[in-house]
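step=encode ok
step=design start
structure_in=
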C-alpha cells in the first residue's frame, strides 16, 4: 500500500524531532499503522537549515502553501505556532481536504471552535495530542480511554517552566526573580516568559482538556488566569510546614451551576502524587465516576517527547484515513450536535478553600478580630499558624487555612480584614485544592 505522505510546516525543535523519530522508528510505526508514513515535503524560511536536517530525498520549500496545494500530500503538520499565519494555513489545508496535525495549543484554545467546525464540514481530521502536555497522551485518554466515564474534574501541572521555578524556589529557598533568570539560562524559560509565568500557556491547555472532558466549546476567553510572579519563598516555606506544596495548576470542574475553568497557584497536600512532580515535568489528574482518579505523568515539552505525540496523531489518521468520517472519534470527544451549553463560571462563583498570609501587629486581640470577620462571612477555619515575633520586632506573620467557601465571600472578607489597622501589608491569598 502506498505510504501516507506528510508535509511539515516548520522544522524547528518539534519538526526536526518528528522527522528524526519517524525515520528512526519507521519499521515499528509501519507495523502499528498498517502502512508507511513519510515526510515528503517541508516548508521553512531557512532553506539551508531545513535541507541539512531532512537531506536530499525530501522536497524543501519556503512557501507553506506549496505543501497545501500538492495533491499528493495527505496530512499537513502545522508546527509554526501562534494565532496568525498558522490559523490561515490550517484552514486552507482543511479547505484543500487535508488532514491536519498541530501542536498549537494557543491556536486551538482561541480558534478551535471555528477550526473543528470547518474540519467536520470537510470530513477531515484535526489531531492535536502534542498541544497539551507534550509526550503525555492525555488528549487520547480524555477522548477515548475515559469514554465510559462521566468526568468530574481534572487538575494538571501543564507548564514545565513554572513547575521548574516553583521546585527550585522550594528546594533552594530562592526568590522568584533569581530562579527565573536561572530557568532562562537553562533554556526552560523564554527571553519573554510572560505566557508561562502569567499562566497563559497553562490556560490554553486546560481550555482544550476541559472542552474534551465535558463536551463544551473551547472558551479560552472565559478562563481565569493567575500566574506565579507574586509568589514568595516564605509562602512556599509556610505551605511546607502545614503539609502542602505550591503548584501552578490548570483546573476544570463540572458543577451543577456550570464549568470551572481556572489557572492559578494552589496549595496541594504533600502526600498527593501530583505534589511531588518536580522540575520541568508535567502531570494531569483526572477524576471520573467509574474509574476514580487517574494520573498521567511525563515530559511536557522537548523535541522528541512532543514528536512522540505528533507521530501518534499521524498513526491515528493513517489508520482512519479511509474510514467514514461519521464513524471517527469526534474532535472534542462528543458528537458535534451533542455539545453541552453549560456555562463557564466566573471566578467569583467558584468554591474552594484558601491559604491566607497576613503581616499583623504583634499585639493582643489581632487574631480575634481576623477570625471574627471570617466567622461573620460564614468562612470556617481549618488551621492557624502564627510565627513568633523576633527580638525587637513589632509584627508577625499570621497564616490561616480555611475550609471551602465561595470566592466572592472570601474576597469581601479580605477587603474587610485589609482595613484593620493591625494588618500591616497586603494580604496574600493562595487557593487550596485537596484533590481527593
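sequence_out=
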Amino acid at each position: 500500500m502506498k505510504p501516507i505522505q506528510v508535509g511539515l510546516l516548520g522544522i524547528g525543535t518539534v519538526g526536526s524531532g518528528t522527522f528524526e523519530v519517524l525515520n528512526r522508528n519507521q519499521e515499528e510505526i509501519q507495523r502499528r499503522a498498517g502502512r508507511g508514513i513519510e515526510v515528503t515535503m517541508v516548508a521553512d524560511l531557512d532553506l539551508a537549515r531545513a535541507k541539512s536536517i531532512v537531506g536530499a530525498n525530501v522536497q524543501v520549500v519556503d512557501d507553506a502553501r506549496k505543501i497545501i496545494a500538492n495533491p499528493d500530500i495527505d496530512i499537513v503538520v502545522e508546527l509554526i505556532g501562534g494565532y496568525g499565519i498558522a490559523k490561515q494555513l490550517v484552514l486552507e489545508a482543511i479547505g484543500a481536504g487535508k488532514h491536519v496535525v498541530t501542536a498549537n495549543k494557543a491556536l486551538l484554545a482561541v480558534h478551535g471552535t471555528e477550526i473543528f467546525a470547518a474540519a467536520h464540514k470537510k470530513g477531515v481530521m484535526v489531531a492535536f495530542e502534542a498541544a497539551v502536555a507534550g509526550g503525555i497522551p492525555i488528549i487520547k485518554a480524555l477522548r477515548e480511554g475515559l469514554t465510559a466515564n462521566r468526568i468530574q474534574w481534572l487538575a494538571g501541572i501543564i507548564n514545565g517552566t513554572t513547575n521548574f521555578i516553583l521546585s527550585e524556589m522550594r528546594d533552594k529557598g530562592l526568590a522568584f526573580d533569581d530562579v527565573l533568570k536561572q530557568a532562562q539560562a537553562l533554556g526552560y524559560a523564554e527571553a519573554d516568559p510572560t505566557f508561562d509565568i502569567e499562566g497563559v500557556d497553562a490556560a490554553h491547555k486546560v481550555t482544550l482538556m476541559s472542552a474534551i472532558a465535558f463536551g463544551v466549546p473551547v472558551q479560552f476567553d472565559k478562563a481565569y488566569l493567575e500566574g506565579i510572579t507574586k509568589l514568595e519563598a516564605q509562602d512556599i516555606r509556610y505551605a511546607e510546614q502545614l503539609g502542602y506544596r505550591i503548584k501552578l495548576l490548570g483546573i476544570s470542574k463540572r458543577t451543577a451551576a456550570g464549568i470551572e475553568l481556572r489557572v492559578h497557584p494552589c496549595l496541594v497536600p504533600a502526600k498527593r502524587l501530583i505534589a511531588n512532580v518536580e522540575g520541568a515535568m508535567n502531570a494531569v489528574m483526572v477524576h471520573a465516576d467509574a474509574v476514580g482518579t487517574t494520573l498521567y505523568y511525563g515530559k511536557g515539552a522537548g523535541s522528541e517527547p512532543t514528536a512522540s505525540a505528533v507521530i501518534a496523531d499521524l498513526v491515528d489518521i493513517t489508520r482512519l484515513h479511509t474510514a467514514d468520517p461519521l464513524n471517527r472519534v469526534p474532535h472534542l470527544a462528543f458528537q458535534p450536535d451533542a455539545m453541552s451549553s453549560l456555562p463557564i463560571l466566573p471566578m467569583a462563583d467558584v468554591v474552594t478553600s484558601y491559604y491566607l498570609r497576613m503581616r499583623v501587629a504583634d499585639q493582643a486581640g489581632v487574631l480575634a478580630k481576623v477570625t471574627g470577620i471570617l466567622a461573620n462571612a460564614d468562612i470556617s477555619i481549618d488551621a492557624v499558624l502564627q510565627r513568633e515575633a523576633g527580638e525587637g520586632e513589632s509584627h508577625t506573620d499570621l497564616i490561616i487555612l480555611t475550609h471551602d467557601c465561595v470566592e466572592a465571600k472570601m474576597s469581601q472578607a479580605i477587603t474587610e480584614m485589609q482595613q484593620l489597622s493591625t494588618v500591616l501589608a497586603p494580604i496574600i491569598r493562595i487557593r487550596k485544592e485537596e484533590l481527593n
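step=design ok
step=annotate ok -> Residues 349-432 form a domain with the Alpha-Beta Plaits fold (CATH 3.30.70.260).
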